[in-house]
Each structure stands twice: as structure tokens, then as C-alpha cells.
Structure prediction request, 361 residues.
Amino acid sequence: MNNIVEQIQKSYQAERIRVSYCVFDIGTYLKDLAEKGLIWVLKDQKNISDPEKILIEHYLNEYRANQIYDNLEEFLNIQSPKNLSAAISRKPSQSTTPSKEKQTKKRQHLEVRDVKQFIGYKKAKELEKKIIELCQNFPSYEVDHIVNQIERSACSIKDSIEMGEQIYVGEKFNQYSIAIGSAKETTAWLQMSLGQKYITQVQFDELDNLTTQVVRILTKNLSNIKEKEGKGMDLPNPFTPNVKNFGAYNNALLLVEKIYEITRKPEFWKEKNLVKKMRKRATSSVANIAEGHQLYIPKKFRFFNDSMKALDGLDSSLETSLIKGIVPEKELKEIDDLRISIRNVLSTKMANISDGKGASI
Prediction:
């Protein structure tokens, strides 16, 4: 038994290395282990990150009834360590005799339409065009930052909708989830641009309304697919919360305001690299929180975790400014308190999701 547990743990470590420790990619592997009843062996394993621990706890709670704690050898019908590794790593699609349920899932498919006639695609294309036109009036020093990011996120909406026009139900959900996340990220960049007065309130309202329309169209589309073609499939809830109602998001916007305000002071005029880092890390925390408001839990973890990493990077930059004597400690305390409060909220939300208390976030 101990030998089997050890080999499962080793196989997981090997998979982590293979996917370069990406929380989103490893989530599929963890879910597969949970469905097989083996995820419990990873619960107290060392050398894994906090997001992984939360994901393991989440899937352990979700598939607690599946877990096999005794007679693993008999259940897995293992004769050698080689066979054990194969059994652990085997994906559902590699099974030599697919279950009746899996065969049914394979038959569920969609009709492929001309995506350019789809109203969601048209709206996304219109949004991208308007944003590119708008960004021509942004300050030159934002071209490598806000301009590139907002144009990228707007383009991603349209591209993901186009890639979602295929026969596979699951992949359509995946691509539309990416599009929804990109739409929310686009709104975040628009809000930050409004805060810096790069755009007017009227311009923001027009483009924000357009992103909202795209999200609603995609959500309605997925809801209809789940009800009709997706019956019996393990598909996520297509409805996502409004990121503007999330306290950590609004505080992160406030953090960006304060970072821009402080880095405009004369003391920072000769510190272009430091200014760039501070602004990039602050805005990245907002963008990742927004993009995390999509369909799949592993993606939420990935973006929330990326937001926390950006906040940690910001802390390092703030320390540098303190060491250089650019800003006194007292002036940075308010910013640091705000940064810590955002990070604490994200950590709590991730923990709540793993306990099944906040899956809608």
C-alpha cells in the first residue's frame, strides 16, 4: 500500500514538471486522480504550492465518495510498478474500452456555423475596432503597457469566439470561457484608462456596454447548449458574476490610482524602470482578478494566483523605492495596507472555493 502511495506521488511530481507547474494544466490531472479515488494521497505531500493544495482540497471534497483508502492493490489490479504508473497517468480518452457514458459524450456535437454571421462575433469585432481607434489617442508612454494590453485582450475575445465555432461542446465552453474572461479583462483596462483620464466617461460607458453585451450573448448561447446538446456532460455553470461587485477588484483599482499618483512625483522622474515595474504590477493585479471571473475553477485559481504574484512583485518594487529613499515609509504604508488587504481577500476566496463555499466567484 505504501509503495503504491509513493508511486502515485512520484507520478504527480513528474506531471507537474511536464506541464511546467502550470496550475491550470495540472488541474485536469488532479481531477482525473480525484475521479479515480486517488487524490487523497496528495493531501499532505510536501513541496507543492498553495494553489495546488487548494485545488487538491477542492477535488477531494467534490469526489470524497470516490476515494479508495483500503486495498488499493486489489482495486487497481496492479501486478508491477510499471503497470501502476500507466494506470495512474492514463487519461479517460486512452481507455481501451470506453464506458457507455463516454461513448455518448463523444456523439454529442454541434453544428458549425459561419461565425462571422454570429451576433457575438460581430459585437466583439466592433469592440476591437473601437478600442484600436481609441488607443491612438493614449499617451506615448502607455503604448508598451496599457495600449498593448487592452488591444490584446479585445482581440482575444474575437479570436476565442471564432475558435469556439466547432463541433465539440466541451471545447466551445472552453473557448467561450476564455472570451468571457478576456471581455472582463478588457473592461478592467478600460476602467484603469478612465481612472487616468485617458478616456472620457462617455467613451468608457459605450465600450463597457459593448463588452457586457458580448458576455451576455455568449452566456445565453452556452446556457442553451448546456440544456440541449450538453445533457449528461460535465459542463460548468455558464453564468459568471459581475467583477465590479467584487471588493478586491475595486480595491485593486484604487491601488492602481495610488501607484500612478505616487510615481508621478518628481522623485520618480529619474526612475523610469522602477516606475514601469510598479505600474505594470499594480495594473496586472487588476487585470488578473477580472480575467479570473470565468467558467472553470482551475482558471480562476490560475488568474487569482497570478494577481497575488503581481502584488508580491509590487511589494518588492515598493521596498526598492524605500531603500533608495524616494518615498518615506509613512507614505507607503497606506499603499502597502491596501495591497495586503487585496491579497488576503484573494487567498480567502480561493480557500472558500476549495471548501465549496464560493464556487460562483
